[in-house]
């Protein structure tokens, strides 16, 4: 007899699958991960990923793996149907990527599926069509050996989830991240990624180093330091990036445990610990580290979409990893070549310690570059520099908090600006002494000039010899998003798979500065999801074309720069917010003379 007070029921499968899909399938990239992992588990050596509209309309994975029998193909889409484990013990010895038998039914619950598969000793394959978890058709079909699974119109029956997807730019980036993680964990598999019919990555069977280079571009090759360590607890292999190539953004940091990408703040700390004192604050080195651990010593029972992992012997692994990284850094004598004093970081103004003479910092200077393009050379500057050195040393040593200048206060007589240490311009105004950072001043002047002319038509110069810059598909994809903005700004950029070429520049940009401009722009895009194109490009151009610290200037040039600066309504800070000058009044100086 059915009692009216009993209210618990088993969920119908399609409801259970949709609920599971909520956890397993968060976005197109999750589908990509599950399908590719299945192909690897099936022993494939060729895997193609074909994506349309960042995965919204199509995600197709084609492999040459084992294929499935007619019954297995049907079974694969049932809940908790897996070929990978049979007993509880198996869970503690997992060597495959999947084992829960959840992925395919979850994906099928929220999309339209077309799966085609054939096993080697069968003549004909099978095609299965499923829509929203319901099988629509199953029929014999011609097929290559292996499996092809197409996932169409993801979330077509769950509008709320579809609306939660981010922009195509963001979704394709997630897809690419998943793709690269798997590709980095399986360097002997051939992988290809196509997006909207264009080829994004073609990765051929290779060794690990070559795989890294295939993905990140040739420029990374000479920066990789190998690492190997074998202990009873863990085997470590892979590469770490040299400290001087560390970047501010996180990105090229990869841990793999038993060929599975994982995230681990704990292990990251171990690496950072090994790099201690070799990095500037906030810089993170690249690393590609592969750990092999007895599967029974890690907790594999993690959620399918999570990438965290639990180690039984966490503490030892930390210590071994840290030592291995340290050892590699030492062995390849990466350590002694570092010298932060050589880093032209404009954030500081050298302040003199007592009893220590002021030395000009060492910088690489392009002595042929004349920022104001006059014809005479910087011949008669030296003696002036020396005679003002004594006075200026004193001033630098005793900097006091400076006030902001107003426009009216500036005045110029004859020969009013002196360059000191090839880095500072010293001048007077309204009874005050002013020390201007020449690089920062020029940055600000260029920035304002560009900004004032930005609304007008920007003149572009075609280059006789276009500039080719090596890059990688990831950077090229992000740069492509700004193709038309760059063009409007005077940069004619042509994109290839692993490089881009600049055919034309804005007229007042020098070809020599172009690589640095693009490198800064790419870094800015990596750091921020959204950027204001115009402001960023203007800042970057002014930073890279300004007269450098350590660069000699003629008195006329120095004067011209100071005048241009002091004509500005707001001469006090660079576009990056750095102080442009310091100033001192007579009373401060006379106090010092007592
Ligand atoms: P799991 O991978 O956890 O077993 P899935 O739902 O991802 O669960 O897949 C279910 C089953 O379908 C797998 O165990 C495997 O037997 C089969 N399968 C899935 N994809 C493929 C493929 N590309 N080639 C061969 N077999 C596959
Ligand atoms: Mg699976």
Structural notes for this entry:
The protein contains 17 helices and 22 strands. By secondary structure, the chain is α+β, with helices and mostly antiparallel strands. It folds into 3 domains: 191 residues, Heat Shock Protein 90; 120 residues, 2-Layer Sandwich (Ribosomal Protein S5, domain 2); 217 residues, 2-Layer Sandwich (Ribosomal Protein S8, Chain: A, domain 1). The strands form 5 sheets. An 8-stranded mixed sheet has the order 5-4-3-6-2-1-7-8. The N and C termini lie far apart (107 Å). Bound molecules: adenosine-5'-diphosphate (ADP) and magnesium ion. Magnesium ion binds next to α2.
Structural class given helices, strands, pairing? alpha+beta
Q: Write out the distinct hetero groups bound to the structure.
A: adenosine-5'-diphosphate, magnesium ion
Number of strands: 22
Give the overall form: elongated
Q: How would you describe the oligomerization state of the chains in this entry?
A: single chain
Regions with little confidence, pLDDT below 50 for 5+ residues: 336-413
Examine the secondary-structure arrangement and name the CATH architecture of the largest domain.
2-Layer Sandwich
Instruction: State the name of the first-level CATH class of the largest domain.
Output: Alpha Beta
Q: What is the overall number of helices?
A: 17
CATH topology of the largest domain: Ribosomal Protein S8, Chain: A, domain 1
